[in-house]
Amino acid sequence: MDLGIEGRLALVTGCSRGIGRSIAIALAQEGACVILVARSGDALEDLRSQMKNQEKHHVVPIDLMDESGVLNLADKIQKIGDLDIAVHNLGGSAGVYDPFASAKDWAKVWQFNLGIPIDLNRIFIPQMVKRRWGRIVHLSTLATYNFKGNAAYASAKSALNAYVKSVSRQVAKENVILSAVAPGAVFIDGRPLAKLQTENPAALDDYFKNNQTIHRLAKVEEIASVVSFLCSYKASFMAGSIVGVDGGGM
After folding, report:
1. Which residues, other chains included, contact 175 with Cβ-Cβ below 8 Å and sequence gap of 6+?
2. Among 7, 44, 93, 98, which is most buried by a count of CB atoms within 10 Å?
3. For residue 153, which of 91, 242, 241 has the smallest C-alpha distance?
4. Exposed, middle or buried: residue 189 (CB in 10 Å: 0-12, 13-18, 19+)?
5. Helix/strand/coil for 66
6. Is 3.40.50.720 the CATH classification of the domain at 9-183+219-244?
7. Residue 211 and residue 249: Cα distance in Å, rounded?
8. What is residue 53's three-state secondary structure?
9. What is the DSSP letter of 115?
10. Is the distance from CB of 91 to CB of 159 less than 8 angstroms?
11. Pairwise CA distance, residues 227 & 15, whole Å
12. Where in the chain is the domain with CATH 3.40.50.720?
């Protein structure tokens, strides 16, 4: 399927490994020029070496949690060209796991998952509106539906979903399509569920029985393919969509 994004300039944050890495590879396969963002320049260079037409892509090692991180990234992007696609993959628990952590700690999780995308979007969405084309895809989570796991993380991603729905109403008529993908359990090397697959299969099977219909972990490519579709011209009627890719998550 031709997604129609040949030559489009795309940003993927947090793409040095896991889902983000797979998304970057998938977009490159479709002919997009990808700006690769993560903290590790070496990991990003390794990623670029695996991508189709590697000379077309841009490595930007930067910590977006730094106070000046977003503005520095925005400056670098504007020197490269007009941004058509943004995939906000950066996110996580930010080391905050206690449901009774301080409001300051919760705010850190919020900034990591939602504040950074908000600040990037407020710079680039108006430019997309002027050009009447843009695709913004956020990575959400199954936890916004089943509310299992980390409270601060689930709350931040729930706010993200509301943000996508609300802001989408303001810009969809200009062919700037905001959406989100909500993955379930994904196999990523080193992550707890991936370790269970070899270390404690019985515990993993118990997880499947209580959490999702399909009794296996998703491949990162299965998430990336859905994200790639949402980045395409074919997603023009999917404004505000929160797409579950969760194996029948419960």
Report:
1. 132, 133, 134, 236
2. 44
3. 91
4. exposed
5. coil
6. yes
7. 6
8. coil
9. I
10. no
11. 13
12. 9-183+219-244
* Residue linked to tokens 């991603």: 157
What tokens were used for 137? 């895809």
Q: Is 20 in contact with 14 (CB distance < 8 Å)? A: yes
For Cα atoms 178, 216, 159, give the angle at the middle one, nearest 5 degrees.
30
Report the alpha-carbon distance of residue 111 to residue 94 in Å, rounded.
9
Using CA atoms, how far apart are residues 227 and 211, in angstroms rounded to an integer? 23
Coil/strand/helix, residue 215:
coil
**DSSP H helices in the chain:** 18-29, 41-49, 69-80, 103-110, 116-131, 143-146, 151-171, 192-199, 201-211, 220-230
pTM above 0.70, yes or no: yes
pLDDT, tens digit, 9 for 90 and up, residues 89-137: 999 999 999 999 999 999 999 999 999 999 999 999 999 999 999 999 9
Q: Distance between alpha carbon 67 and the CA centroid of its chain, in Å?
A: 21
CA 79 from chain center: how many Å? Answer: 23
Strands 176-183 and 134-139: parallel
**CA pair distance 149, 164, nearest whole angstrom:** 22
Render pLDDT for 142-157 as a digit per residue (tens, 0 to 9).
999 888 879 999 999 9
> Does residue 250 carry a pLDDT above 70?
no
- Are the CB atoms for 43 and 16 separated by under 8 Å? yes
Residue 45 token pair: 């260079």
Q: Please give the structure tokens belonging to residue 102.
A: 């301080």
Q: Which residues make beta-bridge pairs with 59?
A: 36
